[in-house]
Every structure is written in structure tokens, then in C-alpha cells.
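Morning run. Coffee first, then this:
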Amino acid sequence: MRLAWLLLSLALPLQAAQTIYRWVDAQGVIHFSDQPHPGAQSETLQMTTPPQGAPTPAAPVQTNQPTQADQTTPPETAYTLELTSPKDQETLWNNEGQIPLKARVLPFTPKQGFQIKVLLDGQQTSTLTNQLPVSLSNVERGTHQIQLQLLDKDGKVLASSSSITVYLHKASVLNRARQAKSAG
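And here it is:
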């Protein structure tokens, strides 16, 4: 019976009340101690003592260096770039090969300078600084994929629009010659 009580007492953790002192120093670091400190608030905590021989977790080391969570860096704005005109699968008629592009940046257009990179059929055609809307010139007739990218002043991509497909039609010079023959 004594052996059972001895095993039971070793297996159960001991509980004791202890006074802990807490204070914040001039740098804003919170300290805890079992010894009183000028200006410290005393708190009574219920402490649990692990059984003898039980592994104890390592106590965290308190440093006065700020942690990563303490360092305040402004959050980066998540931009969205939307190509509003022309629409995907739209057919355009322009004999000069002009394709005007309108885009919208959400939540707002960057104020510290930006660039718009224009991709036509996966190839960069131009990069414009602080300029919206954009226009493509001398585009051959046919099917084309268009995408825009919003870059910061250092060239980092902030947002990309969806790629759209447009169909550009031009009047053929051959059609004019045929029409002139049939009229004459």
C-alpha cells in the first residue's frame, strides 16, 4: 500500500502558490521575477511543479532586441490591374493598326511613379511611365493576345492583367483594286 501511495505521489504534479512580480522597463520590455522590483505589480500565480525526473521545457531567453513581429513595416498594397477595353474576344476594325487600351488599377494608381509594360503576343512592345490609357500602333491584322503589367519605379511587377484575345481587321489594298475594276 505504501508503494502505491509513493508511486501516486511521484506521478501527480505538486501545486503551490507563488508571488511573481511583473514590470515594464523604459524600452517597453516586460520583465517577470520572483523578487520585488521598484514599480513592479505583484501577481499570485498557481504554479505546477512537474514530478521529479520529468523533462522540463527550456525556458525562453528574454532579450531586449525587438522581434520580427515588433518591427513595423508598412504592408505592401495588393494591386489589381484590369484591362477594361477592348474586351476579350472583341473584333476591331482599324486600317492604321491602332489598338487603344484602357486599364484600371485597383485599389488606386500608385502615387510614387509606375510603369505600364505592354505585351503583344507575349512580346514586350513598350513600357510607358506614369501613363494610362495606352495605345498600340502599327499592329498587323490578325489575332493577338494583349496583356498589361503594372511595375513600380524599380521595375518590380506589382500586378498583371488577364491576357485577352482581340481580332484586328484592316481593309485590304487588294479589295480596293477589285472595287475600282468592277466600278470602271
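Residues 149 and 160 are 4 Å apart (CA to CA). Good start to the day.
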